[in-house]
Every structure is written in structure tokens, then in C-alpha cells.
Specification:
Alpha-Beta Plaits; six-stranded parallel β-sheet
């Protein structure tokens, strides 16, 4: 594929590295000659000095014939404008990176649709969602989120004191938007039927809409008795996304920021958290705020070294879980040696999203569940499949034990019921036995 990338920063550079290694022809545009010179020494790609908002520059870079244009600068408005121009010049697919929630959530205006941009990606949002999910699910053994966080999948153990123990799935009063997709029992995993009884100690795979997920989860697993205490270091856009993701009665959040003006802004914007004008790496602040008592410390400033040192120090004084956000992979091999529990990288997240969007096949395997007994697939419905499209789900003859766990229709995502219908243009989340790929591909392939 011919790919043009606007922006040679962390995301643009890493995108060029990964996509070039996959065999794609890459041209990268940037206004800083120094960045392009570094890339020219390290990668066999084309580069062009100039602005991605100028049509002449985009034409010279080959955008009219490009299969993909990626706008990945640090400035949202430049990415949106360059993406719109690239689409107008003829780029087949356009992806624009954004930071601000107003653009990503498209509040008040359908930016992507009106500007002709195929996909908006927000690495900060995706990274914050991943961090929040590890914090929101203390009983989960594994966590996956799909459909921009609107549908969740969790594996969790069934507590012996739950009322559902001994009941069949069909007799349980589960929320309509939740399903049990798989069960692991005494070392063996299987996909349940309506007559399957829940036993204490079962490890279930639960899928459901995020809004109703906590209620469904509580049927099987006890909630922690106390609120989780979270300390966040850094009032970055990622920090804001994380605080929003943790806007729940189960959490108390303290956010540390060294810039006074930014503190005032965040205190007004995030009125459900405590914003502190302080340096969370200082011993005095650590002592005064009793950081050793928090359940999780998340360091997500723009400085990788500061994040590593802060998270390691927090862990050393007794914090249960220390998390560091890194833009570069340079220090990843050191983290386990300094006690940091988890690391997340928006840069890696961005490239992963772009790779996923490049995959244009109608059926994709997303994950395996329950020790490989069940797989999760994303299916794009591009044609009117007889007996499937515009037919109630209860009447569709899917392969054996196939579960339609989610339907995404434009911006709306839901866990469907028996009477819901699939339409052309939908994206489905399907769970089924391992080895289902061939049958689904045969059913939904466009050729």
C-alpha cells in the first residue's frame, strides 16, 4: 500500500517504522527538517519537508494516489484540516489522530462525516480506557474491551455466596444487555446453554454493554467493600480521559499537577475528583497525602523518566499497584526490575489502531476466551446475506453455539436480543467455538 503520514513525532515515527516493516511504501511529511533527517538515517522511506495543510505539499507527497493518509501531528486542528484536504485530493482512506474529547466524541458536530475523514483515533482515550479497566475490575482474571469501550468482556470467578449459584442461565434475572459467553470449571472450559447451572468457583466470561455491566457483574462477583483510592500524577489530556473513565462511586481520585493554571482548569472541569497543586515525586507530599495507602498510583506526565521514577517510588513505599505511561519503548525492559506493575504506551496504541483499521477483511479474530475454547470475532456485514440480514436473530441459522454478542450500527453499539435484526453496514461481535473463522468467512465474505 502507498501510505502518506503527516507528522514525524512519536506516533508518526512509530507508525512509519511498523508500517514500513510490513512492506508498505511510506512517505512522511513534517515541517521540521531535523526530524526528517533522523528518519532518513533509520528508515528506507520517503520524506517531504512542508505542511500537511497545504494542498501542493500533499500532492507532491503522492496523496491523490495514496491508499492511506494518516494525520498524526500533535495538533488536532491540523490533523482534521490535513485529513479533509487529503480526502478531497483523492486519498482512498483517511485516519486522523485527535486528543480533545470534543472532536473524538463529535459533540455537536459530526467532524469525521462532514470533513470526509474515515476514522478518528484517540490514543489517549484508548490508553485511559485500558488503564481504567484494569482498575475497575479487581476481580477480573482477564479483560478485553471492544467497540470503543461500549461493550466489555471480563473473566471473573463466581463467589460462593452469590444467589445465582445453582441456578440455570435461563432462570437468572440478568440484564437484557449481558450474556455469559463461556465457563471454565475444574480445569475444563465450555460454552454454556440456557440449561447450564452456575457453580461456585466457576470462572465465567461475561459480555455486556458497559452501562449495565456492573449490575450483571455483581450477580456473580462481590464488589469490594471500600472505595478504591487512585492517585494520578499529571494533568495531561490522558490524565483527563482517565479521570473521566473513573467517574464512578467506587473510586476516589486525587490528581497531582505542578502547573497552577492547569490545576484551576482541571478543578473546574473534573469536579468529582480532588486536584492538588503539588509534585507527587516529593517526599513531603508523599508523606502528607499518605500515598502508601492508595490502591493504585498512575504516572502519566509527558516525561517517561519521571513516570518511571515516580511509579517505582510509589511502589517502594507500599502502593498496591504502580502504573507508568511511556511514549517510548526504551525503558520497558527495566520496569519489572524496579517494581512497576504495568506500563501503557499511547504511541503503541495508536499504531495498533491504525493496523486494525488497515485490515479490510470482513471477518477478524479479535481474541480467544476460556483457554481457547471460544473465540471472539469482528464481522463486517457488507452485503445482504440471505437468511441473515433483516431477519430476527432467533431465526438466523448461525453455526453451532454461535453468539452475536454485539451490534455496532454507525455510532450506536448494543448487545442484541432475540428480536433484533442485522442490517447491511453493521459490525458484529460474534463469539463461538474455536475454529469458527472459516464458517463465518464463508457466510459473510463479499466474494
Amino acid at each position: 500500500m502507498d501510505i502518506v503520514i503527516c507528522g514525524a513525532g512519536e506516533v508518526g515515527r512509530h507508525s512509519a517504522e511498523v508500517l514500513s516493516a510490513m512492506g508498505h511504501d511510506i512517505t512522511i511529511i513534517d515541517r521540521e527538517a531535523e526530524k526528517l533527517a533522523i528518519l532518513d538515517e533509520e528508515l528506507d522511506i520517503g520524506n517531504l519537508l512542508g505542511s500537511g495543510t497545504e494542498a501542493e505539499v500533499l500532492i507532491e507527497a503522492g496523496v491523490p494516489e495514496a491508499d492511506l493518509f494518516v494525520a498524526a501531528t500533535r495538533i488536532d486542528e491540523i490533523n482534521l484540516l490535513s485529513g479533509a484536504i487529503a480526502k478531497g485530493l483523492g486519498a482512498r482512506k483517511v485516519i486522523a489522530r485527535v486528543h480533545h474529547s470534543a472532536y473524538f466524541d463529535e459533540r455537536g458536530y459530526a467532524y469525521s462525516e462532514k470533513l470526509g475523514i474515515d476514522h478518528l483515533v484517540c490514543p489517549d482515550h484508548t490508553t485511559a480506557t485500558a488503564i481504567a479497566q484494569t482498575l475497575r475490575s479487581p476481580g477480573a482474571l482477564a479483560v478485553e474491551r471492544f467497540a470503543r469501550g461500549k461493550i466489555e468482556i471480563q473473566e471473573l470467578a463466581v463467589d460462593p455466596d452469590r444467589r445465582v449459584v445453582g441456578k440455570t442461565l435461563v432462570d437468572m434475572r440478568m440484564p437484557a444487555s449481558a450474556r455469559v459467553a463461556a465457563i471454565s470449571r475444574q480445569g475444563e472450559s465450555f460454552m454454556p446453554t440456557g440449561q447450564t447451572r452456575i457453580e461456585a468457583g466457576d470462572v465465567i466470561t461475561l459480555i455486556g454493554e458497559s452501562g449495565a455491566f456492573e449490575k450483571a457483574r455483581s450477580l456473580f462477583h462481590s464488589e469490594p467493600p471500600d472505595r478504591s483510592r487512585i492517585a494520578v500524577m499529571g494533568g495531561t489530556p490522558l490524565g483527563v480521559w482517565l479521570c473521566r473513565a473513573l467517574h464512578h462511586r467506587r473510586f476516589t481520585v486525587r490528581l497531582f499537577e505542578t502547573d497552577r493554571a492547569r490545576c484551576d482548569e482541571l478543578a473546574e472541569k473534573l469536579d468529582w475528583i480532588t486536584v492538588l497543586h503539588a509534585d507527587a515525586t516529593g517526599q513531603t507530599i508523599l508523606d502528607e497525602e499518605h500515598i502508601e495507602q492508595v490502591d493504585a498510583f498512575v504516572a502519566l506526565t509527558h516525561d517517561d523518566e519521571v513516570n518511571i521514577l515516580a511509579a517505582a517510588r510509589a511502589k517502594s513505599i507500599g502502593v498496591k499497584e504502580a502504573i507508568a505511561v511511556l511514549q517510548r519503548p526504551t525503558y520497558l525492559h527495566l520496569l519489572e526490575h524496579v517494581g512497576i506493575d504495568r506500563a501503557f504506551s499511547p504511541r503503541v496504541t495508536a499504531v495498533t489502531q491504525i493496523q486494525q483499521l488497515l485490515d479490510d477483511t470482513p471477518v477478524k479474530k479479535l481474541a480467544s476466551l476460556a483457554a481457547g475454547v471460544a473465540d471472539v470475532f469482528e464481522v463486517k456485514v457488507r452485503r445482504p446475506v440471505a437468511g441473515v440480514v433483516n431477519v430476527p436473530l432467533k431465526d438466523v441459522e448461525f453455526p453451532h453455539q454461535c453468539l452475536v454478542a454485539g451490534i455496532q450500527r454507525e455510532k450506536q453499539v448494543k448487545v442484541p436480543g432475540a428480536q433484533d435484526r442485522i442490517e447491511v453496514g453493521d459490525t458484529l461481535i460474534i463469539i463461538g467455538p474455536a475454529g469458527l473463522f472459516r464458517a463465518l468467512n464463508k457466510m459473510f465474505a463479499t466474494t
